[in-house]
Write a structure and sequence with these properties.
Largest sheet: 4 strands, mixed
Bound molecules: uridine-diphosphate-N-acetylglucosamine
Strand content: 25-35%
Radius of gyration: 21 Å
């Protein structure tokens, strides 16, 4: 059990380099089994989910090596197309191996994925899209079996821009005969990052970042070296921590464009924000204003993953903020915990109303999931006295040395 011990009240000051993106790394790790030659990925964060993905790669027959933030993968020995149940349970994104395995081996066998309990999280869109590419998909005895002798390019329309389904189609379609046109695709920066990596390994993908992605037959390619983009949700978390605690920080090596909706609300709440090309400088006096209404949406809308941390930053903001969650059914699990700090949050289904309070006081909280856990740390930084966040490892699934990063900026925080 991780215990995050925070003494609130310190201002944050200094510069912080933003870690590489978990959600960009994971699909690229799955895509690595398609690369004809070795891949070296840099700026890969050291996280439990990354370890799980590397275990899956080894289990499939890849050779992997991890040194600091650099990961080497040689996929020439991939022989297996089955992902064991224990590994599937470790994280949600293991489902992206489905498209990659289908492309590489013509078969994928796996069980439904684990990950944060944010709601139902079905994978019907993934399966339907893979069937359109010519795969035979059967769900039997708790196992999903996909097979395709010959995948064929076609037009696929996603009724909702699912990030995971978009990634699965991109991966599977690299092995299809003829061009695939994916409409209604997710537009997240992580999708553009996957396209960039795939193209380095000889694939011909274009359109990522827009609603239509074209995937053509691949060519051969040499070994690749690829840098993972910065984690926009970690950047958003640090920005929200600063907003709540007050102070002045500079976030380095991150594109402000990737989390501009979060910056927009922080500005509206009263923070000074100066965007640079590869970073952003933020200043807050810790006295925030409510921001009206926040509504989570697919990118380029406000990200659901940043909703809990922004909510936490606004607990003391003057006035009332309304939060509408439209992506996941279960994204307010942290709310009862935040109330223990003295927060005034009213919940009504997928809607939360935050009435700013004068002060928050330390308490013992239980991390409910990855971003919910991070929101408790953000709130703890602006609470009086000591806050303990008891965590079964959720936060470390997505944040690399979060205690150290915050402590370097002047926060009193310790991970025990
Ligand atoms: C990815 C991110 C996650 C983020 C989410 C939304 C990774 C590893 N994870 O998750 O951090 O919170 O995007 O930005 O990148 N849906 C269906 N059927 C499907 C697929 C999805 O109904 O087949 C629904 C989901 O239940 C959910 C919504 O679509 O309500 C969004 O899901 P999706 O975009 O697929 O999220 P993930 O790829 O799981």
């Amino acid at each position: 059990m991780d215990i995050w011990r925070i003494r609130g009240g310190n201002r944050l000051n200094g510069a912080c380099r933003v870690q590489g993106s978990k959600n960009a790394s994971l699909p690229i790790l799955a895509a690595a089994i398609l690369a004809p030659k070795e891949s070296t990925l840099t700026n890969v964060p050291r996280l439990r989910d990354i370890d799980a993905a590397l275990r899956i790669l080894r289990c499939l027959g890849c050779e992997t090596d991890q040194r600091g933030n650099e990961v080497y993968i040689n996929a020439s020995g991939v022989t297996r197309s089955v992902i064991p149940h224990e590994l599937m349970l470790e994280m949600r994104s293991s489902v992206i191996f489905m498209g990659a395995l289908l492309a590489r081996c013509g078969e994928a066998r796996l069980s439904p994925p684990g990950g944060c309990q944010l709601g139902k999280r079905p994978i019907d869109l993934h399966l339907k899209a893979l069937r359109r590419l010519g795969a035979e998909v059967v769900e039997q005895g708790g196992e999903i079996v996909c097979r395709a002798e010959n995948l064929r390019g076609t037009e696929i329309v996603l009724p909702f821009p699912s990030v995971g389904a978009t990634e699965n189609v991109m991966l599977a379609a690299t092995a299809a005969k003829g061009e695939t046109v994916l409409r209604g695709a997710a537009r997240e920066p992580e999708i553009v990052a996957l396209q960039d990596y795939l193209n380095k390994t000889g694939c011909r993908v274009r359109g990522a970042g827009s609603g239509t992605i074209y995937i053509a037959e691949r060519r051969s390619a040499d070994a690749v070296r690829h840098r993972v983009i910065a984690d926009r949700i970690v950047a958003a978390t640090m920005a929200c921590a600063l907003a709540a605690a007050g102070g002045e920080i500079e976030l380095l090596d991150v594109s402000p464009r990737h989390f501009s909706t979060v910056l927009h609300f922080l500005k509206q709440a009263g923070c000074d924000i100066m965007c640079q090309n590869r970073g952003v400088r933020l200043r807050s006096d810790g006295k925030l204003r409510a921001v009206g209404e926040i509504r989570t949406e697919p990118y380029p809308g406000f990200p659901t993953d940043a909703q809990p941390v922004l909510t936490a930053a606004l607990l003391k903001a003057k006035g009332t903020t309304l939060v509408r969650e439209t992506i996941f059914e279960n994204r307010f699990r942290q709310v009862p915990e935040l109330r223990r700090l003295g927060a005034d949050i009213r919940l009504d289904g997928q809607r939360a109303e935050i009435r700013g309070v004068e002060r928050l006081h330390g308490a013992v909280l239980n991390a409910t999931d990855l971003r919910g856990g991070a929101s408790m740390i953000v709130a703890g930084l602006s609470a009086e006295g000591e806050t303990l966040v008891r965590d079964e490892g959720h936060i470390r699934r997505g944040y690399e040395a979060l205690d150290q990063r915050l402590a370097e900026l002047g926060a009193e925080i310790r991970l025990e």
